[in-house]
Design a protein that fits this description.
Helices cover about 55% and strands about 15% of the residues. It is α+β, with helices and mostly antiparallel strands and about 450 residues long. The strands form 3 sheets. The protein has a 5-stranded antiparallel beta sheet. The chain has a 5-stranded mixed beta sheet with strand order 7-9-10-12-11. Strands 6-8 form a two-stranded antiparallel ribbon.
Length: about 450
Amino acid sequence: MNPRDWLRRLPVVTRLVLAVAVTMALVLTGAAGLVYWRVRTALDQQLNDDLTTYQRSLDAAVRARTPLPPGPSGSLQQVLDAHGRVLRSSDALRHQPLLAPAELDAVAHGATVRRDVGSLLPITADTLRLQARHVTTGGQPRVVVAAVRRGHRDEALRELLAQLALASALTLIAASYVGYRTARGALRPVERYRSGAATLADGVPHTRLDVPADRHDEITRLGHTLNHMLDRLQAAAERERRFVADASHELRTPLTLMRAELDVALHRPRTAGELTDTLRSVDTEVQRLIGLSNALLDLEGLGSGHHLTRARTRLADLVEAAVARHRRTAEQAGRVLSADVPDTAIDVDARWLQPALGNLLDNALRHGHGTVRLTATVHEGGLRLTVTDEGPGFPPEFLPRAFDRFARAEASRTSEGAGLGLAFVHAVAIAHGGTAHAENTAHGSAVTLDLPC
């Protein structure tokens, strides 16, 4: 399995703790390495200074042909000729040469050789640091080797490594524990929200997440967002249930009437005229069903934004096309239908906006009185369309739900229509990114569309 895929499968808390642990391990390793390097450099510098001082005293004694002076505690010395034979040596070394042939050759050519004997880890006995230089005395070449013990230096470094390892391990454990507790505490509300959402998924109504009111961090904002989403989901579910109930009622009525007409027609032989009347009645109900189905399909089509296509359209042409279809109806009813529209171009979907205006004009002619006026204004990239009449207006209790599907005022329930006209108008406004508003005025009713254009 790919390590990245394996990490993705781990719980979030585990991944956070691993990230903290790895980061802290890298930081602690770097810090420990820096401390160790600085201490080792200081100890090596002190050791090298002691070794150089001891080397100079040995070089001076060899040149002067005097006894070799004692050095620091545990130090060693050795004098060799050009062929590597030991001429003088510390008692601890006896006649064992400290230099390899290659090192002896390098010193004979004027180089200074410095190296360590033994290792820091694993622990070895008789660890030394030696230095060899070429010296001439009485015309004879000599190789002087000075060596000091590294025991104290190595012991200090080993103790430092142990302390750094212990301190780093304790710090890493503490940081991982704090990271774990912090991650668990930060994600605990998320788990609580998940449990609440699972309860809602089980069908428990009116479930809301317990969000603290005295905080405003990311998790709290997530809780408020989820509660807002739950509110909208519940409202949508209620609207859906109401829609199904209303649609069932609206569809049942014409179907019941059609069934009754057909039952009566088939109950006994009928004359041609009676059958014609029955067929006309059935045709009326069929047309009602078709209109209702088309309206529902239009509303569903507007529910998805990809059905909306804006195009540059002359406002006067759009309004005239909507008004022209209702002029004959207005003339037959002895009503005045007027339009006040500026000569400008707008970016809208005329395919949807024109029937929406037609619905408003149709409602005003069927339920209102007097003159019906359609006014349009364009200001700062916004289009306002208002249809007014001089009728009694909307019932006050109907206004809050005027744009709901199948919503009809009590006075209009016996008239034609399924209560989808204003719902379609509202859907068109929302699809354009605008709003729809219905109100009563001093002279009648008014429905206003505000659309960006």
